Amino acid sequence: MKDQQPRPAGGSAPLQDSRNTRNTGPGRLLIAVYGVFAISATARAGYQILTKFSEAPVAYLLSAFAALVYVAATVSLAKSGTTWFKVSVAAVLVELAGVLVVGALSVFDSVQFPHETVWSLFGRGYGFIPLLLPVLGLVWLYRRRPSRATATPAKARQ
What we know:
This protein is mainly alpha-helical.
């Protein structure tokens, strides 16, 4: 019963805590963009690993890792509850760290990145959206963080 919403008096549907819903309003657009990146990064990494892995194994494995991060972010942003909120924050922070680290490495050590990944050159091949997306994601998550009342189990509040 950890992520259960409070019920209105005399009603059967739970009340929506607007701060505990990340999949409404602009959050839907954010989830859609993450979904597109999850699908495209997965397809790209799968193709690269299956057809030309020996050309740039580090880059292609990083593309596969990025795909997994985008899938985790997409799913967790679409789900409600404090556990999924924590998964979302972790996924988006890993994404931001990945974009910054891989972006910097691809600039300063281009020998290791003969082929681009989603995060190479800070996402230049994708219009720098991979650099902007986690920043927007973290802002959205901060604005939609669970309130203290919904983040603590009911037994602890009694």
